[in-house]
Structure formats: C-alpha cells, structure tokens
Amino acid sequence: MALFNVSHPTVFLLTGIPGLEGTQKWLAGPLCMMYTMALGGNTMILLAVWGESRLHAPMYYFLSMLSFSDVVMSLATLPTVFRTFCLNSRAILFDACLAQMFLIHSFSLMESGILLAMSFDRYVAICNPLRYASVLTNQVIAGIGLAVIARSFTTLFPLPFLIKRLPICRSNVLSHSYCLHPDMMKLACADISVNIIYGMFVLTSTFGLDFLFIILSYVLILHSVLAIASHEGRLKALNTCVSHICAVLIFYIPLIGVSTVHRFCKHAPWYVHVLMSNMYLFVPPVLNPIIYSAKTKEIRRSIVLMFHRLCM
C-alpha cells in the first residue's frame, strides 16, 4: 500500500478483473487485438478522408472527427490497461490518474457531440438536400468542431479539481485498469455530494440532451422519408443513415448501461461493473471503423486505393 500525504495518496493501484488476477495475462492477446483494430481502423479512416479529395465533404469530415476522438480515447487507456494486464504493474501517479480521467471523460463527451453533429448532417441531407452545400459549409463544420471541443473541455475542466479537493484516505485501490471519476470519488472519506451532483449535471445536460436531439432529428428524418413517394427512394434515404444509427447505438447503449449499473445496481457483482465499463470504452472505437468501412462504399474504395498505392 502506498503512503498517503495529507489529502491524497501519492499513487493509485489499478485493478484488472477481480477474481481473475491469475489468468489476466491470457487476456493480453485479445486486448492487443482490440487496440490494434481500434487504432488501425480509425487511423485508416483518417488517412482515407485526408488523402482522397472525393471525401472532402461534411459527412466525412464529421466521420474523421469521430475517428480522431476514438484514437485519442484508445491511446488514453492503452498504457495503463497494457501495464495492468500484461506486466502486472498496477501503480499510477495521482496526477497522471487525474489526467487520464480527464481525457477519457472529455473525449467521450466529445464523441457524443460529434454524433449529434452527424445527426444534423443526416437531417439536412435528407430533409433539405437542395440547401445541403450552403448550410454545411467548411466554416460551419469547423465551427461545429470547435464548439464540440470547447464544450467538452470547459464542462469537464472542474472534474480533476473536484477530486483533488477530496481527502482520499479509505484506500488507494481503484476498481478498473484506468481512472474514472465515479471510481475515484468513492475512495474519499468526506462528503462527495458536490461530485455526485456535478456528475449528474454533466450526464443529463450533455449526454442526455445530445441523445434527445439525436432522437428528435431522426423523428424529423423519418417524417421526411415517409413523404417520399417511391419505396426505393425511402430505402435509399434510410440506407444513408444506417452507419450513423449503428454508431449511436454502440456508443449510448454501453453508456446508459454503465451509468445505470454505477448508480442503481451497486450490489451487483463487481465483474458486471468492470464488464460494462470496458464495453463503454472499448466497443465504439473498435466497431465504428468496421461499420463505416462496411456500409460506406466511398470509404471502402478509398481504403483499397490507399493500400494499392502502398503496395506499388
């Protein structure tokens, strides 16, 4: 156990999967494969959009923002997950843990904002296609991107300070192989009401509102699609939304699940908490590039051309 100073431990100890410490090294292979898929897949999409002029369009700009967010999210968790599962090195400095916590939460919020922006892109493309180019100009897209970044960092900027003000003296053992705000605040031997209230405020005013606006955009999209006379036209319009709908589901379902488990299922077995948190962090970065590569012909073609150029 690490020594404690007046207000907090010098280090936290990370945890892999409780009860399976002896077999955690067997998970190194699948974890490395997941990180390779997440980093490799999202990097390919970034390179494809950057290098192919045909993909210099609003939909693909937003997709590249989503891929960049997934890359940073994966890189933020990679060092501690790899050390915990592969090297059995569990210690992380207090300030490094705060930095990792901030990156994980801020880029998760950024991904939520990007998914909302992508739903707006689909709304304009389907409901007002004649004004698509004039509404979603490069300046508007850049402004949306900057607004998403600014909202993420300003909203979550207080989190490290809310943790740092707490005297943490119950333990220095965290429940995951990375640092999360709910996990860290539970180790405090002081009133954590402010942390709980602020966490709920962030969850409802950002993730919650984003999800509601995404649902609203698809209600409007569905209304416009049903007004299309031909069956083929309706299917074609809806098919342009399939990738985004899948991305929304694989992001928000684990998020809702982990939030529900943390707040309302406190007596559930701890491996349930760990499993839900890992799904929330690992599933979207791994599946997003697969979904968009499989469902978007232009992305798939650009990736093939990119590999063709490399092999020549």
From TrEMBL:
Lineage: superkingdom: Eukaryota
GO molecular function, one term: G protein-coupled receptor activity
InterPro entries for the chain: GPCR_Rhodpsn, GPCR_Rhodpsn_7TM, Olfact_rcpt, OR51/52/56-like
Parts of the chain that traverse the membrane: 26-48, 60-81, 93-120, 140-163, 211-229, 241-264, 270-292
GO cellular component, one term: plasma membrane
One Pfam family, short name: 7tm_4
Subcellular locations according to the entry: Cell membrane; Membrane
Membrane topology: Multi-pass membrane protein
The entry's keywords: Cell membrane, G-protein coupled receptor, Membrane, Olfaction, Receptor, Sensory transduction, Transducer, Transmembrane, Transmembrane helix
PROSITE patterns: G_PROTEIN_RECEP_F1_1, G_PROTEIN_RECEP_F1_2
GO biological process: cellular response to lipid
Domain (G-protein coupled receptors family 1 profile) ranges: 41-292
Family the UniProt entry places it in: Belongs to the G-protein coupled receptor 1 family.
Protein name: Olfactory receptor
Source organism per UniProt: Vombatus ursinus (Common wombat)
Chain's gene name: LOC114042326
